[in-house]
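Protein Record: Sequence and Backbone Structure Tokens
======================================================
Scope: a single protein chain, as residues and as a discrete description of its fold.
Tokens: labelled as protein backbone structure tokens, with as many entries as the chain has residues.
Position: the record begins directly beneath this header, with no further notes in between.
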Amino acid sequence: MHRFSMALTLFALCLMISGVGMLCANAQEALPETERAERLKYAKAYLEAVPPSQVMKQMSASLTRRLPEKNREDVQDFMENEMDLDQIEAINLQLLTERFTAEELKAMADFYNSEVGQSIHRKTPEYSMQLFHEIFPVMLRSVQEHLRRKNGGPSLEADTADI
């Protein structure tokens, strides 16, 4: 189960790195109803082009290809059967409308509904996973070195050697 937990942690980090969930959204002041409605309209149009369920499936497929074969089925099953996609979509709508203007959301929807946008959308999960796979060791070495320099603290190498 340790590897399954690690895989889910890595998956979550990949989502944050790729911006799929737009987790860094800042709360904004209350919007006039017309602006909020327009943002919601374009946010929905964007999510039709880039459905969260599709993004999750793409990320899951990309993630499971990189896992040891014995762990793939558990992760795939979890991603396909236990994720609350309705809640994920609701969170996406909320964050999109808080973070982006109607003009920005329309541009996103228009782009991702285009042929080029769909091509980029299909490639992004694998790109994000590969990016994370390649930068994670760099990040980990940096943390290990920082801890050693800071206080001669414990090495993370024993806990992370098999990642």
